[in-house]
Amino acid sequence: MSAPNTIVGLGALTDHIATVPQLDTARLQLSAEEGAVLQLVGRVERIDQVLARSRLGEPRTIAVLLSLRAKGAIVPARVVPRGAPAPTLDAAMAEDVDLEPERKKEIIELERSLDSMDHFAVLGLKPGAPAAEVKQAYYNASRRFHPDRYFGKNLGSFRARMERIFRRLTDAHNVLLQPDKREAYLRGHPALAQAEKAAAPPPPAAPPPAASAPTQHLLTPEPPPVHHVAAPAPVSRPSSSPVSRPAPAASVPAPALPSADPVESEARRAERQARLARHPYLARTGRLAELLARGKAAIASGDWERAYHDFHQLQSLDPKNREVATLLVKARRAHDAQRSGAEVMRGLGLEQHGDSLGAMAAYRLACSLDDQNAEAAWRAARLGQLLGQDAAEIRGLAQRAVELDDTRVEHHLTLGKVLLDAGSKKLAKRAFEDAAKLAPDNADAKAALKKLRWTF
């Protein structure tokens, strides 16, 4: 069977496709078939040339190309004649993703400028910006460039671009926010260090000394006067005479202590607390506690995107924290499960519009995101069986759907059909019998069992 002249989601057979620069294949978890087809694409190749050189056959190769397209591994490319000026943004800007053209252009230009930008420039700050501005700039940038902010949307290759931008933003934030790392970074960039010194506010001038007498007395107090009182001479009195008490001697007054000014004490206490808050260890500890509390609150509210973002940032600050590592894995799995559900819904929409290959690619992506998604496994197996795709893969998907949820008749029926196509009639009959137990009146199960009744 020859491929159509135009493949929905890829383009015409004479169009070119290209591998995304700096592609991290380990993160995408490509299958063996996807890796083989990606090697055929190389840096850039025509679609019909890839189909001709592939050993998988045209239908299967087209399905694999669509899967690579959905994962953001390949993008449409435009090849210009030799000697002609090559457009800088044409290939990436032509990619069909759920982003506005201005947003795509912003992401592309920023990603291509990362290597030439310092930490301040990446965050959009002037050299010498204080920690408070660094925090605010990082928060604002995270809202724009974190890939999970576009949950459920088709980002294509732009997901990898945004992940690279976000990693760079996080590195800049962590360095500029920790005094020791910031000092080491500025030592390696003397121009930035000079700019930071120039931007630092001048130290406050010392107040001129006051010449008033009371102030001088407080600064250099004189010792209090000492009064010598002579002891009274003993007086002889007859025993019968009343006792006359001597006049009390003049008491020596104690020097008065300066009274504490409550306004001044409060100001000194506030200044001390502010100085402690700027201490590197205390500031870092407070930031860790804030992220941990916010991430746990996000888990409690079901906001897995927020939880994953906070725990990911927290792990970068405290990589040896086992609790954070456990929470990050939990948030990542739940977030991937949400994305998997969104891919199933996207596949249903593509299937309703007649794009079976695109739907198959979406179901495969949903299975790779969450291997516990029974719905994704069943729909991928059902559609793959109808399209006549790889029998071993389809059988594994159908078996997984039954193992994850054996209460649905559709799962057993699909497994039975896949096994029947593979020639495993005994196993197929068992699957149809399981379907009949769940729904005795199911017409498909009854027809399949009637057909297989006299085959053994």
UniProtKB/TrEMBL annotation:
Keywords: Repeat, TPR repeat. Residues 200-211 have a biased composition (Pro residues). InterPro entries: DnaJ_domain, J_dom_sf, TPR-like_helical_dom_sf, TPR_rpt. The keyword Transcription does not apply. SMART domains: DnaJ, TPR. Gene3D superfamilies: DnaJ domain (1.10.287.110), Tetratricopeptide repeat domain (1.25.40.10). Residues 194-272 are annotated as: Disordered. Residues 227-262 have a biased composition (Low complexity). Residues 118-189 form the J domain. TPR repeats lie at residues 288-321, 409-442. It holds the Pfam family DnaJ. This is TolA protein. It comes from Pseudomyxococcus hansupus.
